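Sequence in, structure out. Go.
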Amino acid sequence: MAFIGALIGGYTNHLAIKMLFRPHEAKYIGKWRVPFTPGLIPKRRDELAKQLGRTVVEHLLTPETFKRRFFSNDMRKKAELWIQSQLSKHVFESHMTLQQWLSKAGIEHVPSLVEGKFDSILDEQMALIESRFASKTVKEIAPEQWQKQAEERIPEIVTYMIEKGETYFDSEEGRQTVKRLIDDFLSSKGTFGNMIQMFMGESSTIVDRVQPEIQKFLRAPGTFEILSNVIRGEWEKLKSRPLNELIGGFDLQPVLTKVKSYAKQELAVEKRLDSTLQSYWPEGAYWTAINLTPKITEFAFIQGEVKLEEMIQRLRLEEMVQEQVDSFPVERLEDLVLGISRKEFKMITVLGAVLGALIGLIQGGIVYLMNMI
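Output:
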């Protein structure tokens, strides 16, 4: 009886374990479904998938788990070092020229584009200046500070003119100029001029008399006032004239063309683009490591933490786990569980046999005692 009990107990537990997975699908006799088919796990597969998905999301792959794993200070430092190493390697230590970088970004013919844009901007600004200021007077255009400074310079200009006049007329060149003017004047008067020359002598003598008078006139206080008033009056007239009257006789196009040519020559866009970033910014890697990369990393991690829960929800991890479990063949799921718990299941089978044997022994003992009585 012990043997029979052990056989029954062991086989019963073995059958119960098998019934967890088998049969894989429902069995029918006609239209009648055989009880306990399919096995427990195939039958409850959908519920198992949902429960596994819920367990993973609520207890395993939680936002706190991701934060501890991916948003730690150590991970942040590693990310910062990696970003900086990539910047240094692929940007600042690269032998690619600026033109090659632009070409890589799909931007071609940059020098001609820049020069064309420069010409266009210069033409637009020139046209804007002409349309805006051509009809306005100098007084309206020039800043008040400039006008005030110009008026304050008038005494300096007059003093400069008088000093230069004194120096000139005191020189031999000035003397010859006065002599030539006197000779021309006397010649133009014909007989009257000859009469004057008879009374006053040769033109050289007249020059000796006139030259000191010119110097005396230039040094006279009234001369300074006269010249100051004349220049100040002309300045007031000039301020009241429209700008187009002042520059109307000038063709500004050649000047504009020369400005463009000079600017393009100084810009030398093509030559400048034929250099590496390192040549223009040798301290770029150090600067970005101190000022840029830490801020980029900090911003990325802050935004990552803020958006983490939303991203996990968008990933739909619960649905992903459920779909993966649903897509598992039952045979594979059975192999997976048995591979993990095979020893335990064997122990359950053995335990069933042991319990069956004990029950058989007890039953045999009871029967033996009953027969003895």
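Check: The radius of gyration is 55 Å. Residues 138-241 form one domain.
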